[in-house]
Fold this sequence. Notes:
Blueprint: E1 5-10, H1 12-29, E2 35-41, H2 45-52, E3 59-66, E4 81-83, E5 93-101, H3 105-115, E6 121-129, E7 142-146, E8 152-153, E9 169-172, H4 174-177
Parallel strand pairs: 2-3, 2-5, 5-6, 6-7
Antiparallel strand pairs: 1-9, 3-4, 8-9
The structure holds inosinic acid and magnesium ion.
Amino acid sequence: MKNDLKQILLTEEQISLRISELGLEIDRHYEGKEILLVTLLDGAIVFTADLIRNLSIPLRLDCIRVSSYGDSTDPETAPRILSSLKSEVGGRHVLLVDDILDTGNTMKRVHDEVLARDPASVQSCVFLDKPERRQNDFKADWSGFSIPDEFVVGYGLDYAGQYRQLPFVGTLKPSVYE
Ligand code: IMP
Ligand code: MG
């Protein structure tokens, strides 16, 4: 699997250091409050697992599944909610967590869905951000790393369902797509 990689962009050490910083910032922001942390399946599970272990505020966890790329590297423009939240959202402080903010269409869709249910607040935290690719004005409140416009895998991110278990983030050799 490692042979399929062109370059490692983020090492395990860089990732873990950055997540501990994010944990402190998020703890400080929500001090004295409980949050409903909503993780976007499947890509955000690895990031979420590490992020929540760096949070001290009380939290409950829920999941939402949005239609994905399939086996292509191009995003769909109109993501669909495939399975929605089981929790009561009204009056709660919701923190959306995703692996990567690319076009922004997924996060915008989920943000709208949550807002419609009358939360006390909705904020978002993404592991990676590709600002060059944005198709709307969505901005994450917290982001782990800003990266260039390249397709990446590892740390939860997949290509055709593979590579999610890599503990670091890297780019693939072009031969993998061909
Ligand atoms: P957006 O709707 O275009 O912002 O896309 C967000 C979703 O696309 C993420 O949750 C990822 O699942 C997927 N995605 C975007 N860029 C990449 C990438 O470089 N590698 C793997 N998945 C990606
Ligand atoms: Mg995803």
